[in-house]
Amino acid sequence: MKVTLAKSGLKGELTVPGDKSISHRALIFGALAEGITEIENFLVARDTLATLNCLKKYGVRISRSKNQVKVLGTAQNFSEPKDILNAENSGTTIRLLSGVAATFPFVSVFTGDKSLRQRPMKRVLEPLSQMGAKVLARAEGNYAPFAINGGKLVGRDFTLKKASAQVKSALILAGLRASGTTTVTEPNLSRDHTERMLEGFGVKIERSGQTIAIIGGQKLYGQKVVVPGDFSSAAFFIVAALIVPESHLLLKNVGLNPTRTGLLTVLKEMGAKINLLNLRETGGEPVGDIEVFTSPLKAVEVPPEIVPAMIDEFPILAAAMAHAEGVSVVRGAEELRIKESDRIKSIVGEFSKMGVMVEELPDGFKITGGRRPLGTIVDSHHDHRIAMTLGVLGLTAVGSTEILNAEAVAISYPDFFVQLTKLLEGA
Ligand SMILES: O=C(O)C1=C[C@@H](OP(=O)(O)O)[C@@H](O)[C@H](O)C1
Ligand SMILES: C=C(OP(=O)(O)O)C(=O)O
């Protein structure tokens, strides 16, 4: 993919595709529920389709027409998959479904692509085996492929060392079918879509601060789920509009769950002119429109406690930092090293190629901003968020930027470059 210096600002309106986290959850909860679940504005992308295909292997009947999905609930009766479940590139798929697999008295074997097979799984597999599941995993219990032989689980109390919505959700899903009560305490609150949506499916969850408690043996009832636009996808256009001169953009119907919108807090501190309009609630999730104007930005130090609320937005935040006057610092974000790529290394390596002054830290990075990037050949490292970030940075670079392995955008946003081009042309 080739991106050239934007000749004009990003102008007009855009509706980004449905939220990835919420789409995964709607499929899984719909599959476990009694009755039919209808999902509107489902994200059609590789990660969410991986979840859909794994669920079909459990015997769940799912039909899809574009972004409308119908799930015929099994009332918690999955059948043993006759083949390996391939979560492809999706951490959310493999970790959430592990929590479900742990509750069924049969064998589920999981694998993923090269990236996913290098991402740590002990964080879910260990607590699931403490609840009573039998687990056999490669590399001393840490990597896929792995097999889970589930069964009668016993509720337990867990305190997570790091905030993780995937681990929390896997344990909630296991706890839902365990005896007694399961509690999960996080050091900071991670995204809470699981808690919100399960409540919509009729499940009682107790929440107090960073602790959630779930009593086992509860039923789920099929629902209509309307998926809001994905804030993490909107983030690329927010930053693009901030840094490309003469932009004025309206992003419509975006999920604004506060456990996801840490980027807005940080960008506002950097001087970004962003307005939230038409605030409302859809299916238990806050939603609104985001108006963005090109803004001069100043450097920022990201407070570590906000990291979980913007964990997927660090690549695109780095692009904003490259345009901010002064030295910006990210710390406490070592989780970035175990995403689809080592995102700290990917940012530092590719931004350096584009002439950005960036320094690697063990748990983050430092960027001295304000200098115009230079177009060159860069690589996504097969990571969707790095591909989109480089696409945005390329809009402000001198010359043209060629992004290798840009097709990675299909993981969460297949039409990203098409929509970006349209916004630029429509100006
Ligand atoms: O639960 C989810 O839907 C997700 C949780 C986060 O991962 P962790 O739980 O590993 O922090 C995030 O990075 C990922 O994109 C989606
Ligand atoms: C980390 C991500 O997803 P996952 O963990 O589901 O692969 C992401 O989408 O940035």
Automatic annotation (TrEMBL):
Main subcellular location of this protein, as a coarse class: cytoplasm
Known EC number: 2.5.1.19
Subcellular location: Cytoplasm
Catalysis performed (reactions): 3-phosphoshikimate + phosphoenolpyruvate = 5-O-(1-carboxyvinyl)-3-phosphoshikimate + phosphate
InterPro entries with a match to the protein in the record: Enolpyruvate_Tfrase_dom (IPR001986), Enolpyruvate_Tfrase_sf (IPR036968), EPSP_synthase (IPR006264), EPSP_synthase_CS (IPR023193), RNA3'P_cycl/enolpyr_Trfase_a/b (IPR013792)
Segments forming domain Enolpyruvate transferase: 8-419
GO biological process, one term: amino acid biosynthetic process
Enzyme class per UniProt: transferase
Active site per UniProt: D312 (proton acceptor)
Keyword Metal-binding belongs to the record: no
PROSITE patterns on file: EPSP_SYNTHASE_2
Binding site for phosphoenolpyruvate: K20, G91, R119, Q166, R343, R385
One Gene Ontology term, aspect cellular component: cytoplasm
Domain of life: Bacteria
Keyword set includes Transferase: yes
Listed GO MF terms: 3-phosphoshikimate 1-carboxyvinyltransferase activity
Keywords recorded for this protein, A-Z: Amino-acid biosynthesis, Aromatic amino acid biosynthesis, Cytoplasm, Transferase
Function: Catalyzes the transfer of the enolpyruvyl moiety of phosphoenolpyruvate (PEP) to the 5-hydroxyl of shikimate-3-phosphate (S3P) to produce enolpyruvyl shikimate-3-phosphate and inorganic phosphate.
Summary of subunit composition and partner proteins: Monomer.
Protein name: 3-phosphoshikimate 1-carboxyvinyltransferase
Organism this protein belongs to: Carboxydothermus pertinax
Gene symbol of the encoding locus: aroA
